Amino acid sequence: MARGKGLDDLLLAGGSPRLRRWYAVPAPARQHRRPYDLPECGPIQGGGTLKTARSKTADAIEGFVSQLPANANRAQLVMSAPGAGKSTALGASIHRHRVEARIVVGTKLLAREQVERNGYNLIVGRNPSNCQRYDVVRALGEAGHPVEALACGTPFEPRCPFYDGCPYLAQFASTGPRVGTAEQLFNRMFWRGGTLAVVDDGDLQRSLIERMTLRDAVLERAVEQLAEGYDGERAVLQVVRHALIDAPRRWLLAGGAWDHLAGVAAQHGYDITELVERLPARETLPSPFGDADGYVSVRTVEAVPPASVATLLAALREELPAFRTGEDFNSRLRISAGKIEVGRLREHIADSEGVVVARLPMLVLDATPLTVLIDHLTALHERLGDVSAEVALPPNVRVVQYATGTRGHTSLRSDIQHQRVIDEIQRERLRQPCGPDAEALVVYKEAAPRFEAAGFAADRVLTFGSARGTNV
Question: What is the pLDDT of residues 62-114, one digit of tens each?
Fold first, then answer.
């Protein structure tokens, strides 16, 4: 009876159905709306000339950098179009005022570009060439443990036998402006000695939002590694494991993910709300310990559950009140066949004196900012008024939108969908004939080879990552 799948079986077993509020959607809203050509062109957002936008951008950056003492603990967002000279104006102001800037950008390519153009000190992450215990670093990172604290330590309490001659740490000995990818936002050593924090097209969606995927093998090992005293955690993880077996291939989101967990728990004689309620208020799972030589090793990292398990349990505990309301809600969890994903918004790093980044004036340069992430990034600063410097499209530019499909990277794997896009491109080529050297394409990386086969020159095809923030 406990495993009965019908409503009658549930009621006969003395159970009650889980109810979630349902909102009726008008029938016309469900109808498939087909796109059609407009008789006239739609409006394009206006703006000034490129010269005006560059001047406004440079003035805003110079005004902020020149007043750094007065701008302590202040933040300002400068929004200007790609090509408006944000990075160029920033470099000029930094050198003019001899500022110890700490700059984060979206990609390694952009970081190297800044180094070549402005002479900044390039800071790169730990890798096999600059870290003699990179295997330990990689194991800690994949498990979600704090790398600096467990793999490096401090000059007074080193956690690595090669600490004194470490090439990675040697990067931070140089004075002058530093530049690195946005992951450096969470590196204390990167910010030390700085007088200005700059986020220049930092791809905040990638760096501020952390997503951890847990598969059954990881959860199984975690259950085995948790000794006595963790009965509540083990019970919840076992339910999650069973839920992954029965999950569909499509993602179950928000309330749907929780309903699935609740249903699987009930099939095994548990109440998901009671299981989550019994979890401790603050999750404290075992951390990696020192090996025979006193240092953390890959073996000791793998001997304890990954920190991502604690993140999963914390998310369940945090979202339980929302699940109990019976209303739909946003969740940090999503479940698919064989895996569960938990996301979180990364908090600013702190030391004994408080939040590191909050002590520095912050300048955010972004052509297409995501408001909620900018708000989170600057939450501990006094926010100055945003500066917007848009560039109007020239009159000879014509924008055509095709809305016959989503054009996502998964749909472009389909030969049929791919051919539809090629047909649309061919129609535009007939309307606006030109040579291959006058065409360019921005597309998903995995789809790039197929579009090169459609007649685009290889050097005229960019992917979204390579195009962001560059003037190519």
Answer: 999 999 888 888 999 999 887 788 999 999 999 999 999 999 998 888 899 89
Q: Which two tokens stand for residue 417?
A: 């969908």
- Euclidean distance between CA atoms 137 and 127, whole angstroms: 9
pTM (two decimals): 0.81
157-to-128, 149, 324 alpha-carbon distances in Å: 23, 10, 46
Average pLDDT over residues 38-46: 73
Q: How far apart are CA 120 and CA 88, in angstroms?
A: 13
Return the closest-CA partner of residue 211 out of 340, 378, 349, 372: 340
Contact residues for 283 (Cβ-Cβ < 8 A; gap 6+): 233, 310, 313, 314, 317
Residue 201 carries which side chain, given as an amino acid letter?
A: D
User: CA-CA distances (angstroms) from residue 118 to 101, 176, 247?
Assistant: 12, 11, 52
- Spatial contact of 199 and 182, defined as CB atoms under 8 Å apart: yes
Higher pLDDT, 311 or 471: 311
DSSP, collapsed to helix, strand or coil, labels residue 214 as strand
Dihedral of CA 232/234/237/243: which sign?
negative
Q: What is the pLDDT of residue 36?
A: 78
Question: In this model, does residue 124 exceed pLDDT 50?
Answer: yes
The 10s digit of each residue's pLDDT in 417-460 is 889 899 999 988 998 888 888 888 888 888 888 887 788 888 88
Chain centre to alpha carbon of residue 180:
16
Encode pLDDT of 199-237 as tens digits.
998 888 888 999 999 999 999 999 999 987 899 999 999
Closest CA to 293 of 166, 164, 159: 159
Q: Is the dihedral of CA 60, 66, 70, 71 positive or negative?
A: positive
| Alpha carbons within 13 A on the beta-carbon side of 30 | 4
Q: Is the confidence at residue 189, as pLDDT, over 60?
A: yes
Cite the DSSP H helix spans in 196-293: 204-208, 216-225, 231-246, 254-267, 272-277
Torsion angle in degrees (nearest 10) through CA of 332, 204, 408, 405: 100
> Under DSSP, is residue 4 helix (H, G, I), strand (E, B) or coil?
coil
